[in-house]
Amino acid sequence: MSKLKAQSNQAINPARLRVGIFLILLWWLPLWLFAPFIANKVGAKTSTVTITVVILQTIIGIIGVYVAGKQTAEIIKSTPKKHVLSKIWQIILHGNLNLN
């Protein structure tokens, strides 16, 4: 049983979890509000810039969900359900992989 936990701990990477959460936060920021300013500077249509920003943000968010979700799934597999959120928070803050 401890061999399974050791393999699971190797699959969890605190940096990947942090990057995934950062990308998700970028997805949630309303960067499309800067579209008129960018459009004026570049000389493009505001609607085109807005659509481009929204599409890029969505792609960034999907990548973030994939990266963080993969790490979170490994944590869920190796941790009792009532301790999952505290373990994820511990890993994000301290980078500690001690999932006991």
Give the beta-strand count. Answer: 0
How many domains would you count in the coordinates?
1
Report the total helices.
Answer: 5
Low-confidence spans: none
Strand content: under 5%
Query: What is the overall silhouette?
Result: elongated
Average pLDDT: 83
CA-based gyration radius: 18 Å
Helix content: over 70%
SSE string, helices as H and strands as E: HHHHH
Specify the structural class: mainly alpha
From the N-terminal CA to the C-terminal CA, the straight-line distance is: 13 Å
Q: Quick one: biggest sheet?
A: none
Tell me what you see in this structure.
With 100 residues, the chain is an all-alpha fold. It has one domain (2-94). Helices cover 77% and strands 0% of the residues. The protein contains five helices and no strands. α1 (2-11) packs antiparallel against α4 (46-78). It is elongated.
Write the layout of secondary structure elements.
Layout: H1 2-11, H2 14-28, H3 35-42, H4 46-78, H5 84-94
Summed up:
This protein is an all-alpha fold and 100 residues long. It has helices at residues 2-11, 14-28, 35-42, 46-78, 84-94.
Task: Give the key terms.
100 residues, mainly alpha, elongated
